[in-house]
């Protein structure tokens, strides 16, 4: 059977396009300021297609956060793969944080940005955000376990999260750089 450009996209392609569009818009302008009509227009999908894949805007938010979390940890592990020693891996994680912060013009953490926008009642969304942050804490805990600095994992996590949000507030690299310098002494 011949295909042509007017043929409809596969459902998975449509779903991916919706998530990609929502990801860009939610991060750039915020969840609450992103309307369904804008999503439909920018994703170039019919309203029925959007609701077929995501019955609610919150369902789309959950898909965005889940995808973003998974991509973050894949990227983090790939970035740290060349490093061997736990200390160098921790410091490299902060290098990645600096690269990320500069790349997104200090827009900040996807998860920290959303948590301030959703009501307390959005438990499913809040659970995904808590899970992502717990995974970061566990990442540093696992990285430092078996070392003399194992007890510093929570401090590293706090420095990481604090540097991320301070960089966003200051619109500058110095918070991440200061955390990196402190970690060089701490570890």
State the gist of this model:
The protein has 187 residues and is mainly alpha-helical. It has 9 helices and no strands. Residues 35-54 bind DNA.
Overview of this structure, please?
This protein is mostly helical and 187 residues long. It has two domains: 10-55, Arc Repressor Mutant, subunit A (Orthogonal Bundle); 56-186, Tetracycline Repressor, domain 2, CATH 1.10.357.10. Helix content is 72%, strand content 0%. It contains nine helices and no strands. The chain has helices at 11-29, 36-43, 47-53, 57-80, 86-103, 110-115, 123-144, 153-170, 174-186. Helix 5 packs antiparallel against helix 9 (174-186). The longest helix has 24 residues, at 57-80. The radius of gyration is 19 Å and the shape is elongated. The N and C termini lie far apart (62 Å). Mean pLDDT is 94; it is low at 1-7.
Listing every helix as H and every strand as E from the N terminus to the C terminus, the arrangement reads HHHHHHHHH
Poorly predicted runs are: 1-7
- What average pLDDT do the residues reach? 94
Count, helices: 9
Distance between the termini: 62 Å
* Structural class label: mainly alpha
Q: Please indicate the percent range of residues in DSSP E strands (runs of 2 or more).
A: under 5%
Largest sheet: none
What is the CATH H-level superfamily of the largest domain? Tetracycline Repressor, domain 2
- Residue share in helices? over 70%
Number of domains: 2
Mind telling me the C-alpha Rg?
19 Å
CATH architecture grouping of the largest domain = Orthogonal Bundle
CATH fold name of the largest domain: Tetracycline Repressor, domain 2
Characterize the overall form: elongated
